[in-house]
Amino acid sequence: MVAIVAVAADVVHTAGALLASTAPLAAQLYGTATAAAGWVVSGVAAYRLLRGRADTGLIYLLLGGVFLTLAGALPDLPALARSQLPSGFGPVVTRAAITFTLGLGAAMVVAGLAGFRTPRRSQAAGVS
Hints:
Blueprint: H1 2-20, H2 25-31, H3 33-50, H4 54-73, H5 91-117, H6 121-127
């Protein structure tokens, strides 16, 4: 569920940036390719985890969190301190979207890493 909320926040952030951009459409689409990859990977992570496939779901969660954090939120971190933001939405919405993407993306990375450290039931049962 965290992955879905993180993707929604990044979609809002990206849509606001695209609405305010005067760049050609091809440049805009090229600029959102990494963010879109993060959305897809995070969606796959949510699907896999909701289906009970923690083995691959954690890998996708970790990768999606890296995409959303590094490509979606960190480049726009200085915007949190600026008075004027290049966005089609208001400054409160833009700042909230950046903050949610950064926080939830980092949480996805931590959860993905923590999931690899804890033994699964099938592994623990087989060790006895």
